[in-house]
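User: Just a sanity check before I run the rest of the batch. Below are the structure tokens for the first item. I only need the designed sequence back.
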């Protein structure tokens, strides 16, 4: 009899979970997913535009900060790992519950701080890489095309580069450069778009 009750309870539980999933969780997920995707798309778009604005400025000393961030991240990670390894051995000797809670809360703060600095340094390293790549490509193409352009055309392109705000502006500049190269039958190095 108890076996029949457990089977019946299992079936009822499965039906209840199915109803909850169908009428509550699925609609929530269906409405939350587009909003989440839109949020991530907006954030990615803003970060992408920032990369192009930084490239328009050109390489500068601002990028010493990412290097410092990476070094600080490494120090914090090693400190966190060493801290955990040291206290792992000493947890057996700690009898006070409040001391143990303090250790765990400081671990959480250190982990959050390390993660934040690590993500920030990765973004700035990526920003530096994109900046240098875009500027190098632009300068190389302008050097190749300079003999075939008037001074006014060259100044115009450099001005557009300096006022670039996003990927659309970058594509317009690249198209203009490609048209000039095609008009003069010059093969330019391939750039990433």
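Assistant: Here's the designed sequence for the first item:
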């Amino acid at each position: 009899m108890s076996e029949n009750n457990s089977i019946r309870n299992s079936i009822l539980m499965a039906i209840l979970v199915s109803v909850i999933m169908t009428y509550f969780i699925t609609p929530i997920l269906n409405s939350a997913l587009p909003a989440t995707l839109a949020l991530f798309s907006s954030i990615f778009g803003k970060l992408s535009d920032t990369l192009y604005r930084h490239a328009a400025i050109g390489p500068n000393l601002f990028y010493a900060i990412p290097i410092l961030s990476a070094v600080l991240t490494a120090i914090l990670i090693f400190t966190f790992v060493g801290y955990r390894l040291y206290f792992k051995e000493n947890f057996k000797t700690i009898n006070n519950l409040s001391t143990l809670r303090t250790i765990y809360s400081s671990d959480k703060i250190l982990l959050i701080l390390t993660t934040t600095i690590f993500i920030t340094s990765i973004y700035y390293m990526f920003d530096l890489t994109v900046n240098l790549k875009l500027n190098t490509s632009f300068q190389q193409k302008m050097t190749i095309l300079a003999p075939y352009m008037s001074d006014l055309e060259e100044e115009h392109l450099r001005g557009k580069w300096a006022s670039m705000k996003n990927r659309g502006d970058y594509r317009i500049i690249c198209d203009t450069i490609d048209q000039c190269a095609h008009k003069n039958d010059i093969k330019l190095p391939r750039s990433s778009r």
